[in-house]
Request: fold
Amino acid sequence: MNENPKTTNIDTPSDELEWREGDMPYSTGFGDYYYSKSDGRLECDHVFIDGNALKNRFTHAGRIVIGELGFGTGLNFLETLRQFNEFAHEDAQLEFHSFEINPLAPSVIKKALTVWPELTQELDLMLASWPNALTQDNELNIDDRVKLHLHIGDVNERLPKQFFQADAWYLDGFAPARNESMWSLELMQEIANHTKDHGTFSSYTAAGWVRRNLIEAGFEVRKTNGYAGKRDMICGVKIPTEVD
Reply:
C-alpha cells in the first residue's frame, strides 16, 4: 500500500513556464516544449498510439494498463482516451498511470489544449474529475471504464512504490540531454519491473545511450521513422524473463 498521501502545489511556478508563439507551453526549467511544435496530438498518435500498436490492442483487450513518464498537459492521456473510446469494445477498461514532477494547474492545461477541439469532450471529463488538491498518488475516475492515476513527484522515487504492471509505456519525458534522470539505466530497469512480459514501449527519442539503457534493462529495441520529419524514434518489447 502507498504511504499516507501528501498534498502538493498544483501550480507550476510561473518562472518555469512560458507561453511561446501564443499558446505553446514551454518549460524554462528544462528548456523544452511540452509537446511537438508541429502538432502534439498527431505526434502522440504516431509515436505512442501507433508505436505501441494500441488501436488493434484496444479492439481486442478486456483491460489495458498504460504507464507514462511525463504527464505534462495531459495531451497523451486525452488522445489515448479519445482513441480508446473509438476502438475499444464497451466492456473494455483502461488504466493509465502517469508520473509528473511539476504538475500544471487545470487552467494552464485547459489553455494549452483548447487548440484541439477534437479533445474537448475528453478534456472536460478529465477536468471535472480533477481533485481540489493533488496528493502524491491521485486516482481520477474519468468514467465507468477509465481510471487515470496521476503520480506526483520524482518518478525515481514514486515508481518503485507502485504495484501495477503495464501493457505499454509512453516514454515522454523532456529531452534526454535536458533531463537525464528520467532516462537513466536505473529508471529503465524500474520500468522493466513494472512491465508485463511482452509489454511494449515507445518514445520520440532515439538517443544511443537511452537505447542501450533499455536494452540492458531487458527490452528489445528497434528504430523506426520519427514524427514530422524526425528521422528516428524507438519502440520495443520486454523480453520475457527465463524461468528455470
